[in-house]
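Hi R.,

Here are the chain sequences for the assembly we discussed:
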Amino acid sequence: MSVLERLIEYGESNPNVEVEEWKKTGNKVLGYWCSYIPPEIIHAAGALPYRLRGMGATGTDKADHDMSPVCNCSFPRAVLDLAHRGKYDFLDGILGMNGCDHTRRAFELWVERLQPTFSHFVYVPRTRKQVSVEKYAQELEKLKTGLEKYLGTEITGEALQQSVDLYNDNRTLLKQVQELFKKDRPPLTGTQFHHIINASVSISPVRLNLLLRELLEEVKDLDGPEDDKARLMIVGWVGDDTMLHRIIEESGGLVVMDNCCFGARAFWDPVVFDSKHPLASLGRSYLDRTGCPRMFATFNERYGMFQQAVGDYRVDGIVRTRLQFCDLHGVENVFFHKRKEQLGVPMSAPMVLDYIGQDEGRVRTRMEAFIEQLQQ
Amino acid sequence: MSQPIVAGCDVGSIWAKAVIFDGKEILASAVIPSSPFPAKTAEKVLEKAANKAGVSMGDIEYVVGTGYGRVNVPNAKKTVSEIACHAKGAAWSCSDVATLIDVGGQDCKVISLASDGHGRVMDFSMNDKCAAGTGRFLEVMAGVFELPIEEFGERALKAERILGISSQCTVFAESEVVCLIAQGHEIEQIIAGICDAVAARVSVLVPRVGLREKVYMSGGVAKNIGVRQALQRRLRVTIWELTEDPLIIGALGAAVLAMDALRQQQ
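And here is the predicted structure of the full complex:
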């Protein structure tokens, strides 16, 4: 099995064999919602941070009992459904946060209904004001204490520094893979890269660094197939499912860049660590990064990132999406639309999707039509 | 040398349509109900159109498939989305189409066309996962009144006022309509409300692409005068009629694209 195949397999599996191997060593695995819970702290405590994913869900009926499908996002429902079916029994605890209200509620329901051995909620502020940074640092302190107590360990400054370095290496390497898409004929497809990103949040950072280095060595000088694909950027997709990437790439497109939750914004900015103020500096980095629309007044930064990416990645068109009931991306789609002339490339009408894709035909028609529009 | 003959076949969710085309004229068109077997439906409708045109299937040099069943069209050398086909077909029919509103069986779309008259798509918007604002919605509602769908729009015009239908879901709207009937409201007023509800769903798509005149309508629902008028009222524009049957515009566009592809191939 090539390193690429291995990474794709990890991305497609929930959980993957690496998790099984980790468990065999007697160490714990903790699931966390959303990219604003720093995995560095979990890792420094000796546990494997495993980002909660919906991969493998075929329906949401177990979750729908508590979270109505007529007003709740399908991604947290898919994750909760897997938990109800015992697919997350390998976890030794879960960490929740207020990424959006749907994921927060799914966390609460998980705790209420399934009573995991360990659960902890991290309140993450939505602004970057000094008061927010201080509050977030306090929250991270509580997380640290909670983990230390549960795992019977001490998270030393040194351990935290090591974990930060490992995760920063992950980010640098993922960015190097991302930059391969600047080539005329990238050696990977966007779908493959999306699998790699999914793998990156569900295996050990040590192992990921090894695999990514090997992958880069293997593919960096290769060229992809010589076909005229429309180079696309996706905005607004939440979740680890690769349906949208796959349909786009089966319809004559190539996803060269994204602003997805499981995507570029998760590895774009490194953590700037200050060993004198470890948790405060960690928290500041998370609040300051080019992040999620959950953060107040950060649209212009994301917009700037896309403007840059349109040129760097020679983007032909932008696919706007959002999951049904996603207010964060729903509103952001409107902001994008207002600035579409400035971006200088066509932008699709916002496509409302469900995390569990049971309507491929509908999505395919829209994507084919958009790509035809770009290529006519 | 005689003109080559091509065909476009649009397999929709309610109707399958075929157009036989020689690059200048529509030689024939056919429309049949769709079935659960899209490949067979496509074959039948193409044969029917070919018979009407007096040509054999073997005479057709290039077929383009479109519609939800596009991948099932036998002998199709190419498939093209219905968005591009409707734009192409409408522009062939009337070269001054700036905005095309297509309301079909299972989806509706608003397409902005380039002003060069060649039917190039500038932008488009389509309905989300919802049957309201589609032909299927009207069909379900016509069923409630046991009325033929063809009469539905005309009945709406007779209403003195339009009753509001607030539900956006076809199933809920149906029960709302049943309640209005039970309350003794005039059928025409309820039907006018239904037509207006479709127009409301379609008109929300318009600002996403912008409204440029002249505005035309295609798809089966374009034949519904009640919906057309409700849309005109909501959008405050005149909706013009295409020179061809609005139901066959997707198939016509596919045929025009088939001729383009054939010429390129040659």
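Residues 157-179 of chain A form the longest helix (23 residues). DSSP finds 16 helices and eight strands in chain A.

Let me know if anything looks off.

Best,
T.
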